[in-house]
Amino acid sequence: MQKKPLNKLKIGLVLNLVPGYSETFFRNKIKGLQSQGFEVLLFVKRVDVTIDFPCKVIVAPEFGLSLLKAVSNGVATIFKILFLTPKRSLRLYRFDKIDNIPLKRRLKNLILNQFFLSYNLDWLHFGFGILAYRHENVAKAIGAKMAVSFRGYDLYLSPLKHIGCYDLLFKKDVKYHVLSKGMKQTLIDYCVPANSIHVITPAINTGFFKLQNSSVYKEDTVINILTIARLHWKKGLEYTLEALKILKQKGISFKYTIIGDGDQYERLIFATHQLGLSEHVNFIGKLSPTEVRQQLELSAIYLQYSIQEGFCNAVLEAQSMGLLCIVSNAEGLDENILDNITGWVVPKRKSELLAEKIIEVIQLKPIEKQRIILKASERVNQDFNLKIQNKAFNDFYRNLS
């Protein structure tokens, strides 16, 4: 494949859906790459809503909505295989055959991957590890390099749900992006070569989520506590609620706000009721970044007591805004927070320990609270800003091309 000029590398990013306005990571990444001369195409399985997006979006054809739609898309796909992408289709078929993929799956792969095969790319980058499952040979078939990002759930939980899902992937020539050193070690434990794994931590807009003078901790009668999380079991919210019940029993006045939505809403509402916390806990749903910032400005303590977590941008935002952060030791969180330096790390699934730590933090002297706040904000601004992230991805693509 003829190498393109330095500033003309074309990257295909693969996601399930077009990221929404509040899902800033991929939007920031795409804008950062474009500002450095990359051309970015976004490949998605479907589009739930029509939203503005900063790059071209290619949507996979649907084969399951209706019989008429399936037949129409099927005919169009067969035409592409025979007349538009015959050489690439044949290569994909042969690569799958070498990997001993069954005939039925090989034919299905030809159909499902046609929306990739029509494009000339330098990189095909799967935004989550599980998205590369059964697409391991597509990049090679189109003459592109292959990259895969792991973000937490896809590395730690997907292999439990889909046994052997990464067996073929880990044998391929792939460059991996992970969020933390812990995740890198997990891939090494899977026998992935260390030089193929690149740690690029999340980053935030530190100019938007910025420490204000008013954000420095003040002694309030009622302690405002905040969590930003999808209402999912892996976020450990029931353990958090159990810890807050202990605070209530000890006579500590607090208000706990949870930003986010998810399929565990009813369960958590009922748990809040059973624990006698209904007057103290407020579920306010999903908010825009501006509304999130407003809630951060109103809060003093941030909790992220997850059972599983890749890294967590919300913890970076909270540190940058001057909140005292208490997190679990789930995966990347103990790299996000430096224990007793920029916040506190508590072993997961230990509600009593979490309650003790919250009380300890509340009772710290104001000068100690300010020391932690300023150190955390300084570290986020220096190490987790978008400029650093953009440079890291620029190096990832250019130096490995």
TrEMBL record:
Q: Which InterPro entries match?
A: Glyco_trans_1
UniProt-listed Pfam families = Glycos_transf_1
Xref: Gene3D superfamilies? Glycogen Phosphorylase B
Residues annotated as domain Glycosyl transferase family: 221-371
Q: Name one GO molecular function term.
A: glycosyltransferase activity
Keywords carried by this UniProt record: Transferase
Q: What is this protein called?
A: Glycosyltransferase family 4 protein
Supply the source organism for this entry: Psychroserpens burtonensis
